[in-house]
Each structure stands twice: as C-alpha cells, then as structure tokens.
Design a protein that fits this description.
The protein is of the alpha+beta class. Helices cover about 40% and strands about 20% of the residues. It has a four-stranded antiparallel beta sheet.
C-alpha cells in the first residue's frame, strides 16, 4: 500500500520519465513481504535502454524492471534504496524520508 505521495511530486516524476530522464519518486509504503521497509523509491525512465544501463551501473538486473506502460521502473527498497539514492545524490528523498546511511 502506497501513501504519502504529493500530487505535485507524482506529476513532476511522470513528466521527467516521459521526457526520457531518470527520475525518482520516494513514498511511504507497507508490504508484508518487506516488513523491514517503510519506503520505496521508483527509479524510472521511459527509455528502456537507458533504464537497463542505469540499473546495471547500480547492480540491478533488467529482469527486476516493472514494465508499466509509459513508466518502466525499478523498485528500490531497504539498503539498496539508501545506497543508490546517496550515489545519485537524491538528497531531497534522503532528507524527507530519513534514508541516511551510517558511516
């Protein structure tokens, strides 16, 4: 279950994805399969080749892409989410959702 998404953030993410940019959307999320996680980041790009290459750079497999029409994306969760957001310098997501990495 997703919650805590601002319409303006969702619209900005959709616009960036549709323009072929790598875009990130972090929101609160609850899923019994991942009891340790309370947020997820959707890392998306409409250009599938670019998304696959971006994922490989971060150790993600193309098989993990959720191929939603117009918005293919990786779901970033837990330590992987924190590591990638820090590398991508997505500071707004890190600060707003408390996704700091120790050390």
């Amino acid at each position: 279950m997703a919650f805590g998404i601002k319409r303006s953030d969702l619209n900005a993410w959709k616009s960036a994805v549709q323009q072929g940019e790598m875009a990130f959307l972090t929101h609160y999320w609850l899923d019994d399969r991942f009891p340790h996680a309370n947020t997820v980041t959707k890392a998306a790009c409409q250009d599938m080749k670019q998304l696959i290459e971006w994922g490989e750079k971060h150790g993600l497999k193309k098989e993990w892409i959720h191929d939603r029409v117009g918005f293919p994306h990786f779901d970033l969760i837990g330590e992987t989410q924190k590591r990638i957001l820090q590398k991508e310098r997505s500071l707004g997501n890190i600060q707003e959702y408390g996704l700091y990495i120790e050390g």
